[in-house]
Amino acid sequence: MNKMIIDYRPIGIIHSTHTNPEKTPIQPVYARDCVGKVEIDIQYLPGLKDIDGFSYIYLLYHLHRVHSVKLTVVPFLDTVERGVFATRAPSRPNPIGLSLVELLRREDNILHVRGVDILDGTPLLDIKPYSSRFEGIESKRNGWQDAIDQSTAEERGRRKFKS
Amino acid sequence: MNKMIIDYRPIGIIHSTHTNPEKTPIQPVYARDCVGKVEIDIQYLPGLKDIDGFSYIYLLYHLHRVHSVKLTVVPFLDTVERGVFATRAPSRPNPIGLSLVELLRREDNILHVRGVDILDGTPLLDIKPYSSRFEGIESKRNGWQDAIDQSTAEERGRRKFKS
Known about the structure:
The structure is a homodimer. Chain A is mainly beta.
C-alpha cells in the first residue's frame, strides 16, 4: 500500500497577506480579519457554479513550504509534545492543509474569502462546501485543546499577526 | 502552476462494510450506524499520540475508484446539476475525500470510528482532529442544500444502505 503514489495537480492558487510562516495565524478562527483571494484556474470555472450559495467553504491545499515530517510536535497552541495527527501542525507525512473559511463573494474564477490562515502563493487542491447538516457538530471532547483557556488560545493562535 | 505535480503516499487504509459504491452512504451523517476501522501504517504510530482525547476526527483519503473528472454533477441529495466544488461528489479534479467521523477508541495503530461513509480499502492520506474551537460553526447559508427537507435528505443520503 505504501508503494502507491498518488499524483495531484494544483487547481489554483491562494493569495493572502501572509508571506512569513512565522507570522501567519494558525487557524481561520485566529485570522478573522484576514481576507484573501482564491484564484481557480479558468479551466475549472464550471466547477464553481452554485458555490456562491454557501457561507463557508473548506479549502484543501498543499503546504508547499513543508519539507520535513515530524511525527510528534509541540503545537502552537500548546507547550507539550503531541502526535502530529492530534494537531493541525504542517509537518505531516502528506502535507495537506485544511481551512474552513467564509466565502464573501465570487467574481468569475476568483473567490473572495475571510479567515485566511494560509501563506500567500499556496497551491490549491480542492474546495468543498461546508454544510451545517454534515459538519455542524458540537464536540464534547477536543483533546488537549480543552485545557487551554480562550485568551491563551487567542494569543497563541494569532501568533505575531496583528490586524 | 498547473505543471506542478504533488506526490502523496497512503499512510494507512480504511476498512468498512461498504464494498459497493452504489450502496455507500454519501456522508457520515447518513452512516451513523456504520462503524469501521482506520489502520495506520505502524511506522506512523507515534503520530497518533493524544488523538484519543478527541471525539471527532477528519479523515482525508484518496477516492481511489474515481477515474473521471466531471466539473458539473447532479449531487445525490439533489436533482439539479451543480458545480462539483459546490458538492461533495467524488468526480473532482483531485479526488480527495473528507469525512468527519466519531472516534470511538484506539487500539495501537487502529482507530475504531463511527459514521463511516467510505468504501472498504480506501487509502488514507491524513487525519486531523476536529475542534469545536476551529470548526463549530453554525452556517446560515448552505447553498442548494437549504432547499432540501430533512427527510428527503435522509432518504437520499443513506442511498441503498440499510442498517
